[in-house]
Amino acid sequence: MDNSTFKELDTSTYMISPDENFALLAYDVQAIYRHSTRAKYKVVNLQNRNESSLQGPNGTEFQYVSWSPTYDGLVFVQNNDVYYRRNMNLQDVDAFRVTDTGVMDQIFNGVPDWVYEEEILSEDHALWWSPTGSYFLFASFNDTLVRNYHLTYYGSMTDQYVTDKKLLYPKAGTTNPVFSLHVFHTHSNKTINIEPPEDLKNIDHYFTTVTWADSERVLITWMNRFQNMTLYTICHAQNGSCYENYRYLATSGWCETPSAIVFKEDGSGYFTVLPMREGEAGYFRHVALVDAGNSVNIKSDNLGKRTFITSGQYDVIEIEKYDPKTALIYYLAYMAGDPTSRHVYKTSTREGDVNFLKPTCVSCTDPDTCDWVSASFSTKPDGEFYMLTCLGPSVPTYTMRSTATQSVISFEDNKEAADKLSTLALPRTKFLRIPLDDTNSMWAKLLLPEPLKEDEVIQYNMLTSVYGGPDSQKVSKAFSLGWEDYLASSHNIVIGYADPRGSSGRGDAWRHANYRHLGTTEVDDSIVAGRYFNSLKYIGDRTAIWGWSYGGYLTASVLGRGSEVFDCGMSVAPVTAWTYYDTVYTERYMGLPDENSEAYNYANVSRYAENFKKSKFMLVHGTGDDNVHFQNSAHLARALTEANVYFRSQFYTDQQHSINGGNSRTHLYNTLEDFLLNCFDGRSSRMDELNNPTVAKPTEKDVDNDE
């Protein structure tokens, strides 16, 4: 088919049926939350080029649509109910209604509610096909007892009244949604229920991942509400019977939601990432092979036995591919001793093999240009090709590679972009370590303006950019070109980053440093980083700090300490009290408010309003933020007002957490720039612009540190 249909529908999103007879083109796509959308679909018959609109029992708008993995059957969700259409030759009225309990904004089938979409599944669907298409497993969520958060939408200037949108949002310590899991049999239109593990039946719990082992068995991972215990169960799709295969109990932190779980070709075992103890250094995440047996009734001493395939003082990020022909597994991991670098490695999974526990880096070809990568492997079991993306430190490049022949085909080298950038006075990057004590140090990074010479006496203003959330990272070899680079290039501002305790890539002891005590070590370390940056001879006496989301919280917390390390700070969409944030994220790191009230109170930024008098402060939030509610900034603003603190605030009407609708993002960065320059030099970039219309304006930038 040509591109005329794509142009007509103004879309580039399409799905081809497995038999290659039909294509679905999504159009009129409307975002709901971070991942979820509503869309219409055009069906194109690839044999005769006939086109028609996809129709469902409730019209032409769908929450989710997916082809069967082996034929032209469809599953779709409308009005929170699941429907199954056996093939495209049937009339639309013949779609089988799998569920009939759906209630908009209350009971969800096949699609997640807000908290599961945001914090657990990170997808727009809660439905998973078996490899042959004989079954699909789906989740149902009942949010009847979840409390509503009311979002006020102001709409257009012609709207005389505001709109009150109710968002089912469980805040820390409140009632969670109730979920259930089901398997639908596509040949008999029968649905069976999947029961949770016995140890979780009578307590609050979550399911976290779903992975089909083979055409008949499915692996489900579960966690208790505290998220310090995870269980792996394997269930039989035919009758719903399950057995516990593996469990892990964290003793000094939380359990991670498993990244991609990969089964062996015969379903007898699966590869997953689990904590492995490395002596006194503590636990690091490594690839393990877990024995899964071959049938639901198996009785074996080896069932659930784990064998680690990797080891060492570094963290594996995710498993990319298992090759059954060579018994090699490919995975993405941080480089040992250097979390600023990450690469794709391979190693043998056969015990006794000469390469067992001896990984080989397959992407470490040119660290000067390619030292932070990602990869996408063929999903076919015997597929040998993968796309390697070199994300930095140079301009990103894309190559197609073969696991069999090691051949490399350039897909996109971005040479034109690299050549253009080479002519610009971009800041240069410097990596360093900031000592915390005799044994620990933080990784840090500086963006140095082009005129800066470290051996000269000229001093520069500095902005420290922070995030600091659990298991996050700001310091890496990834290429970036955003607002902070603009500040360094256009205003000769030094930009600093540091990864405090609690950040990723350095094992569980470092990662869990502020477990149950958010707002402690990451704040301490950010102050240490600020003092270290200030001690550099080329840094002047005017410094600032800023961050978005958790970074906004960290910025406000640093100023709230009254350390006077920074002259000014800018918080965008910050959490200000953890009782205002959702159950899954908050309780994972803080526990429940009732049993950890002292830590919750300590972490409440508003308690330290008096200390904000020591710095200039700017507070920014979107009033339509469904993630970190405007409530957070409203309460901090009131506390600052009551403490007689004068500060600058900016709200963005109806804007969500990313603040990117209309002219909002450009206005935001212009406003932050104006505040920053005023803090540093007492001047206003907006007034400069009025007096000199030729002053370059920054365009919309790509900095966006969402929770």
UniProtKB/TrEMBL annotation:
<keyword id="KW-0378">Hydrolase</keyword>
<feature type="domain" description="Dipeptidylpeptidase IV N-terminal">
    <location>
        <begin position="17"/>
        <end position="397"/>
    </location>
</feature>
<dbReference type="InterPro" id="IPR029058">
    <property type="entry name" value="AB_hydrolase_fold"/>
</dbReference>
<keyword id="KW-0031">Aminopeptidase</keyword>
<protein>
    <recommendedName>
        <fullName>Dipeptidyl peptidase 4</fullName>
    </recommendedName>
</protein>
<keyword id="KW-1133">Transmembrane helix</keyword>
<keyword id="KW-0720">Serine protease</keyword>
<dbReference type="GO" id="GO:0006508">
    <property type="term" value="P:proteolysis"/>
</dbReference>
<keyword id="KW-0472">Membrane</keyword>
<dbReference type="GO" id="GO:0012505">
    <property type="term" value="C:endomembrane system"/>
</dbReference>
<keyword id="KW-0812">Transmembrane</keyword>
<dbReference type="GO" id="GO:0008239">
    <property type="term" value="F:dipeptidyl-peptidase activity"/>
</dbReference>
<dbReference type="GO" id="GO:0008236">
    <property type="term" value="F:serine-type peptidase activity"/>
</dbReference>
<dbReference type="Pfam" id="PF00326">
    <property type="entry name" value="Peptidase_S9"/>
</dbReference>
<dbReference type="GO" id="GO:0005886">
    <property type="term" value="C:plasma membrane"/>
</dbReference>
<dbReference type="GO" id="GO:0004177">
    <property type="term" value="F:aminopeptidase activity"/>
</dbReference>
<feature type="region of interest" description="Disordered">
    <location>
        <begin position="687"/>
        <end position="707"/>
    </location>
</feature>
<feature type="domain" description="Peptidase S9 prolyl oligopeptidase catalytic">
    <location>
        <begin position="481"/>
        <end position="681"/>
    </location>
</feature>
<dbReference type="Pfam" id="PF00930">
    <property type="entry name" value="DPPIV_N"/>
</dbReference>
<keyword id="KW-0735">Signal-anchor</keyword>
<keyword id="KW-0325">Glycoprotein</keyword>
<keyword id="KW-0645">Protease</keyword>
<dbReference type="InterPro" id="IPR050278">
    <property type="entry name" value="Serine_Prot_S9B/DPPIV"/>
</dbReference>
<feature type="compositionally biased region" description="Basic and acidic residues">
    <location>
        <begin position="698"/>
        <end position="707"/>
    </location>
</feature>
<dbReference type="InterPro" id="IPR001375">
    <property type="entry name" value="Peptidase_S9_cat"/>
</dbReference>
<dbReference type="InterPro" id="IPR002469">
    <property type="entry name" value="Peptidase_S9B_N"/>
</dbReference>
